[in-house]
Design goal:
332 residues, alpha/beta, Rossmann fold, UDP-galactose 4-epimerase, domain 1, seven-stranded parallel beta sheet, two-stranded parallel sheet, 15% strand, globular, binds NADP nicotinamide-adenine-dinucleotide phosphate
Length: 332
């Protein structure tokens, strides 16, 4: 039985990846950091919480990473842990850098020293491109120009993975993933903020949704599809870096149209307010990933399209908010 260690196990991708690997009969270990109030809701939602072996550790604590790697001696390591919210990375740049950049270095070093044969996946991101593109799309050859502390830290992580591959012959693969979402996406991200907001408006628990801008375009895919690509990268004979995306993009206005339409609201404009607190100091306007390399070499392609994804998220949020509304009514 193969052993996989996942950092970031409690996050969106950690939960979907754990579910995917368990179905493939892996023994799954999840690195979990000490927090005052532990939130296992993503793992519970996918019904995998009791099938994972948890191991204490933190990307900011090298000793804990060494201990985890030595104890498990995994075949595969998926480094998904991060301060993953771009917006807050301007407010907490040092924490972001410590986890996303230096944290990646700490775990790579632990792997190199104590488990050098493990295959290593690094969660890289389309944010590394900033506003660069080649004729409107980003490919593996597109110039990087990160535009947030988050993206800069992730670019350091990307190059560290490449450098450990080239210097020590380690199997390190970067997945350059474009935005991917699901019903367990954090509520601070724009897709879930909107689907949660739409459900609250539908049940009379909110009056509007406050957003920073309506014009960004993103290439939004389904997290459940993207974790398969992570695994496929580690099943190759040689390590390499791959863009994972749908190859289509949509604006926030498209997202609003789709989400409100799902609950029968055609004109969303009166429910959406612009609020400068959600505007970023520097923005990425348009992301659209060229996924040809992943299709050709990994045999991967996305299954869930944009409308299906947003409808799925709205439907799950409607179910959740319905329960909240019922509880509130019972209290009256
Ligand atoms: P997420 O839901 O925010 O999950 C982040 C995970 O990292 C959580 O489990 C969190 O644990 C853990 N973590 C944070 N700081 C840590 C630390 N110091 N030590 C150990 N664990 C720590 O993120 P996601 O959407 O699943 O994304 C997974 C990875 O892919 C991230 O690296 C992200 O930057 C990258 N990525 C995401 C996307 C996307 O669209 N989702 C696209 C490209 C790349 P707690 O529960 O304790 O907070
Ligand atoms: O923003 C705009 C915002 O926070 C998308 C992370 O997973 O994907 C994610 O990063 C767009 C941006 O995701 C609001 O300015 C407008 O243009 O949902 P987001 P992100 O920043 O693209 C990448 C690939 C990652 O690697 C990251 O880890 O929407 N936007 N108004 C807003 N965004 C938010 N969050 N809230 C607003 O009110």
């Amino acid at each position: 039985m193969k052993k996989a260690l996942i950092t970031g196990i409690t996050g969106q991708d950690g939960a979907y990846l754990a579910q995917f690997l368990l179905k493939k009969d892996y023994k799954v270990f999840g690195l979990i950091r000490r927090v005052a109030s532990r939130d296992m809701s993503n793992l519970e939602y996918l019904d995998v919480a009791d099938k994972i072996s948890f191991i204490d550790g933190d990307l900011t604590d090298e000793a804990s990473l060494i201990s985890a790697v030595k104890r498990i001696y995994p075949d595969e390591i998926y480094n998904l842990a991060a301060q993953s919210f771009v917006g807050i990375s301007w407010d907490q740049p040092l924490t972001t850098f410590d986890i996303n950049a230096t944290g990646t270095l700490r775990i790579l070093n632990a792997v190199k020293t104590f488990c050098p044969t493990a295959k290593f996946y690094q969660a890289s991101t389309s944010e590394m491109f900033g506003n660069s593109n080649d004729k409107g799309v980003q490919s593996e050859a597109t110039y990087f120009h990160p535009r947030s502390p988050y993206a800069i830290a992730k670019l350091a992580g990307y190059w560290l993975a490449v450098n450990y591959r080239e210097s020590y012959n380690m199997f390190c693969a970067n997945g350059i993933l474009f935005n991917h979402e699901s019903p367990i996406r954090g509520k601070e991200f724009v897709t879930r903020k909107i689907t949660d907001g739409v459900a609250k408006i539908k049940f009379g628990l909110a009056e509007d949704i406050k957003l920073g801008n309506l014009d960004s375009f993103r290439d939004w895919g389904f997290a459940g599809d993207y974790v398969e690509a992570m695994w496929l990268m580690l099943q190759q004979n040689n390590p390499d870096d791959f863009i994972i995306s749908t190859g289509e993009n949509h604006s926030i206005k498209d997202l609003l149209n789709t989400a409100f339409n799902r609950v029968g609201i055609k004109d969303w404009s009166r429910y959406v307010k612009l609020d400068p607190q959600y505007k970023r100091p520097s923005e990425l306007f348009t992301l659209k990933g060229q996924n040809g390399k992943a299709k050709e070499k990994l045999g991967w392609k996305p299954k869930v399209g944009f409308e299906q994804l947003i409808n799925m998220m709205v439907d799950v949020d409607l179910e959740r908010i319905k329960l909240v509304a019922k509880k509130l009514k019972n209290k009256e």
